[in-house]
Amino acid sequence: MYAKNVWEKYKDRLEDVMSFNEGYKNFISQCKTERLCVKETIKLAKDNGFVDFYELKEIHLGDKFYIESMNKTIALFVIGEKDLEEGMHILGAHIDSPRMDLKQNPIYEKNHFALADTHYYGGIKKYQWVTIPLSLVGVVVKKDGSIIDVNIGENESDPVVGISDLLVHLSADQLKKSASEVIPGENLDVTLGSFPLEDEEKDAVKANVLNILKNKYDIEEEDFLSAEIEVVPSGRARDYGLDRSMIMGYGHDDRVCAYTSLKAILDIDSPKYTCCCVLVDKEEIGSVGATGAQSLFFENSIAEILALQNKTSLLSLRKTLMNSKMLSSDVSAGFDPLFPEVNDSKNAAYLGNGIVLNKYTGSRGKSGSNDANPEFIADIRNVFDGHDIYFQTAELGKVDQGGGGTIAYILGNYNMNVIDAGIAVLNMHAPCEIVSKLDVYEAYHAYKSFLLYI
Ligand code: MN
Ligand code: MN
At how many degrees (to 10) do helices 297-308 and 314-322 cross? Predict the structure, then answer.
C-alpha cells in the first residue's frame, strides 16, 4: 500500500508492535559495536536452528547456517528449493555506526586530568558529541592473541566518560565560529580521571587510570597499540514521545535494518529461493577494508556454498550473483518538521508511513547512487501490495542539498537488481537517533515478504 499511515493497520494490534520493538531495544542497547552485533547475531541464529557453515558436509533444502568473518561481518543463509544458480534473495544491512575510536597512543595527562585521544568514525556533527555520557566498548588484543572485552559505562553501576565543552560564560570567541569548527576533531578527547596515584611523581593521574585498567583487565598502556575501543553514547535505548510511538537510541543507522533483516531470515523455513541476510561493517567510512561490503567476503562465502554442491566454476558463482535480488536494508532520512526546507515534501520519508524505498540516494547528479531499475521496483510493489505491506518512496533530501551512500551499488556491481529499502530516521548520525516503532515492525514484515515472495 503506498503512502499510508501504518497506524491504521496496527491500531488493533499494538501489543505485537510493542513487544517486537522491546526485542529491538534490547538488541541496540546491548550491541554498541559491530563485534557485539555479530556476537548477538550468532547467538540468535543458534537459538533459531542455524549452524556454523563449516560444520556442514553437504547442503539440503531448508538448511540454515551462517558464515562469519573476523568477528565483524556475518552472512546467514536458508537454503531454498531452487538451484542456487537461479539466484538468491538477499537482505544486506550494515552494523557499524558513527562514533569515536581511541587512537593507538590514546592516554595522556594534562593539567591534572587524564584524557584519551580519539579519531571520529563516520560522518558526525562534532558538537553533538560533547557533554553527554559516553562508554568505552571494544577489545584489547594482547601479544599472546588473547582478546579482552572492554566495556566501561554500559552497566548501570559503571562510571561513564565524556568530552567537555566550554562554559557559555567564556564562549564569546567560540560562538563566532561556524558549527563545523566549534569543536575541532582533535579536541574530541575523552576525560578518563582526575585522581593521582599515590607516591607517583610524574603524570600521576594517568598512572592511576592505567593502574585501574591493569587491575580490571590486566592490560598495559602498550596494549592499546592492538586495541579497538569505541567511544559510544552510554545507556539503553528508550521509548520516545508521550505515546511511546518511537524509540530514541544510539545506532539505529543501521542496526534497525540489521535487526529487522536478521529477524526476517530467522523466521523463515524452506523458501523457494535461497535466502540470505548479510551484515557488514565499515559502511560509514565507504564500505572499505576486509569486513566492509567491498571485500570479497560475501563472494567467497557464496563460492564456498557452491563448492559444497560440487559447483566450483566461476560461471556458477557469477550466475548465482547475477540472478540474485537484493534489498539494501539501510535507513532513510526522516522528514523533520523543524527542518522542512531540506526536503521535497512529496519525495520525503515520513516516520510511521512504512518501509522506505529509495530508487537512488547519492548526491548532486545522483553521484554514488545505485539507481534501481523500475522493472525491479514494479516487482517489489507487486509483492508488497500482495502482502499488505505499507511502503513509501523517498530520496535523501532536496536535489543539491546533500546526499549519502549505502552498500546498494556494491552488490549492484554483480549485475544483480538492488534497491535501498529501510526505515526512516530522525537525527541520523547524532548520538541519539529516532525511529517509529510502526516502521520497525513493518520493515520486518516487508523483509520477510521479500525473502519469500519476490
Ligand atoms: Mn546507513
Ligand atoms: Mn550512516
Answer: 120
